[in-house]
Amino acid sequence: MAQSSASKLVIISIISYIISLVTPAFSYHLGQNPYAQYCQGFYPLLIGWFPLLFELISIPQGKGTFDGLGCFAWLSNPLIFIAWIGISQKAKTISIFTAVTAIILSLTFLSINQLPTGEPGQNWSNITVNIGFFLWLISMVLAVLSANCLEISNKKSMSVSTRNEPGKTISTETRNGLIKIRVNLPNRATIGAESFWAKNLGNGNYQIKNIPFCAFGLNFDDIVRAEISPVSEIPVIKNLVEAKGHQTLRVTFLGIGTKEERLEVIKSVQTEYITYEGNDSDLYALDVAPGGDYGTLFSDLKALELKIILVVETCESRIEGSFDDSLN
Fold it and tell me: Which residue windows are transmembrane per the record (predicted)?
């Protein structure tokens, strides 16, 4: 359920950000006016680049001020947008980095006492943050928490133990004649490796009997060569011997809370050629057997992606000679 938590947190983060746009972000005094005025959050979002540009021009001229440091807080806005996009693509590292950087930059706003208005002799003075600022800050903190949940959901993908076929559920734990094999995935630091149930064909060859959740360039029924690891009795996959024509797609559901609801979506695109594996997380792997229509399945899943129901991932090889994900 970690991926579900990530989805819920990012939704709350976006809602908090939107509310911050229509609530007072800070109060200020204009000129000699003794009464405080309030600035709604959408206004600094739209024109906040101006004080930043003003400060960037002033610094080389030796006219920069300590107040000007807070102008860089505006950059938190594009950074939080990038973090949200990264979370939707399950890019944990970049999402956390951009969200944390956004938090740091947002806090520089606390150093501001006055802001230029563009009018000679006119400044907003006595700047004091208000509820909108804190909602803005909370949205960034929630983005960090959401991105951090991506690591937990990746680990859960290792625990898949069933292959579901139309009208049939088979427990891999009860399959006779199958053994565990493993593929190392060093680029997936939070996982490190993925294991499969496989049929031992002899001479170091094995036939994969799971749909891969993390590896790329491997599919159900593929024959691979594996060797016993010197530090483990589990054979480690070295190379692909023969592809059997199966193709894999992986989907991560966004905001669909129950397993029954997720399965309903899967079954809506399922045919006699399509099987799937999944557990209680939001991540599912779909296998298209030879003769199945991969293109139609992909189009159907992309349509669901446009409705923000799920995110679909293709699983072709990313790195030549490896089953790992690329570092990009």
Answer: 6-30, 42-60, 66-87, 94-115, 127-150
Contact 126, 36 (CB under 8 A): yes
| DSSP β-bridge partners for residue 313 | 250
Backbone angles phi, psi at 196, to 5 degrees: -135, 155
Q: Indicate the SS3 state at residue 89.
A: coil
Tokens of 283: 């991540």
> Residue 209, by phi and psi: left (phi above 0), alpha (psi -120 to 50) or beta?
alpha
CB 221 within 8 A of CB 207: yes
Coil, helix or strand at residue 120:
coil
Query: How confident is the prediction along the chain (328 residues), in pLDDT tens digits per residue?
Result: 445 678 889 999 999 999 999 999 988 887 677 778 888 988 888 877 666 665 555 555 445 444 556 678 889 999 999 999 988 887 888 999 999 999 999 998 888 877 666 565 567 777 889 999 999 999 999 999 999 887 543 333 333 333 433 333 333 333 567 899 999 998 877 788 899 999 999 999 999 999 999 999 999 999 999 998 666 678 999 999 999 999 999 999 987 778 888 888 999 999 999 999 986 678 999 999 999 999 999 999 999 999 889 999 999 999 988 999 887 5
- What does the alpha-carbon distance between residue 96 and residue 100 come to, in Å, rounded to a whole number? 6
Q: Which residues contact 183 (CB under 8 A, 6 or more apart)?
A: 193, 194, 195, 196, 215, 218, 236, 237, 323
